[in-house]
Write a structure and sequence with these properties.
This protein has about 120 residues and is of the alpha/beta class. It has two helices and eight strands; from the N terminus they run E-H-E-E-E-E-H-E-E-E. The longest helix has 12 residues.
């Protein structure tokens, strides 16, 4: 009956600009647009819906309740990291290894937390 996550939504003050950021920086493609909302699709088929934000943004921390980050899988961590550095992406720290997986945290155009991950082995 339930088949998986179809998409995750992000509310943005400027949905078009944020959608373009994902296209230009992470190689997503614009998949669908309606009424100022944008669906961008990653190479693996996963999608983000970017909608117009309403109200004030909170100040979430890494472990406050709710969604905290998006994880972007890569096949070549060093090349992906170098590519983002060349684009001037803001990193929250240096790359590190956790349980054999290579990680680095960074933010998108709106300050949403993202991390690159190259897993040593796929999750079961």
């Amino acid at each position: 009956m339930f088949t998986g996550l179809e998409h995750v939504a992000i509310a943005s003050p400027n949905p078009k600009s944020l959608a373009e950021w994902y296209v230009q920086n992470l190689g997503f493609r614009l998949n669908y647009e309606y009424d100022g909302n944008y669906f961008v699709r990653a190479q693996d088929g996963n999608m983000l819906e970017i909608v117009k934000a309403e109200g004030e943004s909170g100040n979430p921390k890494m472990r406050t309740p709710g969604l905290r980050h998006l994880a972007i899988s890569v096949t070549d961590f060093d090349a992906a990291h170098a590519h983002l550095k060349s684009l001037g992406v803001h990193f929250e720290g240096e790359p590190f290894v956790n349980q054999g997986n290579r990680l680095v945290f960074f933010t998108d155009l709106d300050g949403n937390l993202i991390h690159l991950i190259q897993r040593e082995s796929p999750l079961p």
